[in-house]
């Protein structure tokens, strides 16, 4: 079974959703490795032990990370990414260009989250099938949970729609939603997805861009599929 953790990260320009596919036998070792990252941060930087590993907060020195120096915060982020990249996990990330989505479909445009989630689930289902596995999806809490569950049911029966519509046969049960503070693995996909969206930010300081690329290199080999859809681009 592939435990598939899902979270989103977005700007006004791009909307991303990432999935971290964790074989059931890897879930506990990875959770424990991330616990150790947090334990070290508590001991070294006096961060409360119950603190969540949240990409936005660490990156922007928010909440309990406010008093932690930049290099120390980068070190914590690096340790977490090393833990993730050091385990047998798979990363899938999908995105959409939001202005292009609105321009192409105007008033009939589906919400970006709905669009990207359908594309992500297509890829998760395809990956699971290629490995003769099944996937259980556990997402960070969002609004419209019942609607997303209903969408999954429809995708099983009628397919995901679009030019590469797929009937989902490898995602079991329903979509499960969990608060990120209660799951190190939801936190893991948050760290991965947030960092990925930071890689494509116009005007980023070169030093910051280099630091982001260095962090991403720790998990890059785990990436099975990362792609952003431009609704205004012509399909070849």
TrEMBL record:
InterPro entries documented for this protein: DUF3800
Domain of life: Bacteria
Listed Pfam families: DUF3800 (PF12686)
Protein name: DUF3800 domain-containing protein
């Amino acid at each position: 079974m592939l435990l598939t953790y899902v979270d989103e990260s977005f700007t006004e320009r791009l909307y991303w959703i990432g999935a971290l596919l964790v074989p059931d036998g890897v879930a506990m070792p990875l959770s424990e490795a991330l616990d150790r990252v947090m334990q070290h941060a508590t001991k070294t930087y006096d961060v409360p032990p119950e603190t969540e590993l949240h990409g936005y907060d660490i990156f922007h020195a928010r909440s309990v990370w406010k008093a932690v120096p930049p290099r120390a915060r980068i070190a914590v982020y690096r340790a977490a990414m090393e833990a993730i990249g050091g385990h047998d996990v798979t990363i899938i990330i999908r995105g959409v260009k939001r202005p292009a989505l609105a321009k192409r479909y105007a008033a009939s445009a589906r919400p970006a989250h709905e669009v990207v989630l359908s594309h992500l689930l297509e890829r998760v289902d395809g990956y699971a099938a290629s490995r003769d596995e099944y996937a259980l999806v556990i997402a960070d809490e969002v609004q419209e949970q019942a609607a997303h569950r209903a969408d999954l049911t429809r995708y099983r029966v009628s397919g995901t729609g679009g030019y590469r519509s797929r009937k989902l046969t490898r995602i079991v049960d329903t979509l499960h939603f969990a608060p990120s503070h209660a799951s190190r693995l939801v936190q893991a996909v948050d760290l991965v997805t947030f960092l990925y969206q930071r890689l494509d930010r116009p005007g980023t300081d070169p030093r910051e861009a280099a630091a982001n690329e260095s962090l991403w290199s720790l998990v890059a080999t785990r990436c099975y599929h990362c792609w952003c859809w431009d609704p205004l681009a012509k399909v070849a």
